[in-house]
Write a structure and sequence with these properties.
By secondary structure, the chain is mostly helical. Helix content is about 80%, strand content about 0%. It has helices spanning about 5-25, 30-35, 40-65, 70-90, 95-110, 115-125, 130-155, 160-180, 200-225, 230-235, 240-255, 260-265, 270-290, 295-325, 325-355, 360-380, 385-395. Helix 9 runs antiparallel to helix 16. It is globular.
Amino acid sequence: MSSFKTTQTVLFFLIFYFVYADVALSPFYPQFFNKVFGIEDLEYTAFYIFIARLTVVVAVPIWGLLSKYFEVKHLLYVGQWVSAVMLVGMAGSQDTQQFLLFTILLLIGKSSFFLVYPLLIELNGEGKRSAVVGAYHMIFHGAIILGTLSGAWIIRLDDPLLLFYGLAGVEVILWLICFLTLRKLSSRKKIVLDRESVHSTSKQVYFVFWIGLIIFAFHTANNMIRPYFTTYTINDFQLSIVESSILFMVPSAMAMIAYPVIRKVYSQEKVPFVFAIALGVLSISLILQGVTNSFIVLSIGRVFYGFFLAISQSALELYLFNKSSNHMQVYTMASSFQNAGLLFAPLLASMSVMSYNLAAPLIFAGAICLLTLIVARLTLFKDTKPQDQKTDVKEVG
């Protein structure tokens, strides 16, 4: 295996591990806090998740700013060692205050992993950009599936805190692998601006604001359906917990299937059109899941939802990378908008359920996606015209 392929494999594995470790315990926090610290109040879980996500919102752009002055690999090393030490602290926590403090410090270190994705984009160049984005989403959703499945086993451990000692050991091993394989990797480059880049300060601020707002709305909509989905399907469709869990994971499986499509359909001139079509279908599939009384229609909605979720998110990320000259800083700022959406989504979901019913988050999410599509068309994609696309194709050819 060539040095470049080895480097790329290690970076993709870091993404897999980052998502897997984040997902494995997250669906079971209420059971975890009850078993380890004797806390039965569900409000503490909501508070814990809120603080965790707020930490990431603040930390990620700081790492992006640091990447302007330091090699990304060195920032990753720092993040890995911070993570290892904090995981040991979490394992030895005597109460929830200690556990929360070590969690905050852990997430500050872990946020350095958000630099891996834009680093892969830069290493592969424009020609392989869609392939990297497709591979990223396949690995991302594969990690979600495996993490969710293993989480049920983790929570049954006699002392779940021991898990964090194991994760600390994994962090050290990963640091050693990274140190040995990324030695020749350099993320410092001279930024070359062209007509496709966001080349002026005013344009960059405009671009980051609008794409950040669209990313915020997109992730708010697609995460507000998560907290109550299994309860909705169990209550309204009389599904078992196992059946509901399988239906919950269908979109992640469909996102992995979408990988070959993502690789083939994207080019710079097609991205706005692909995003519009995918988000339109995504919106309809969400509303359909919320208004139907048929299990078959619900299942079909989940299939379409997962497939076009991957397509629309990939298109949005490709547009971000295509239109930004500094991938690290722009992506990490955009990631803060994404995490702000993850912060806001459960609150909006709870409000919609209390005001209406368990199906309301799906319907509201579909409406938000439609609104997001309109805003994107009026802001980010307002200058996209068919004649411009034809010109681009001729120039490439």
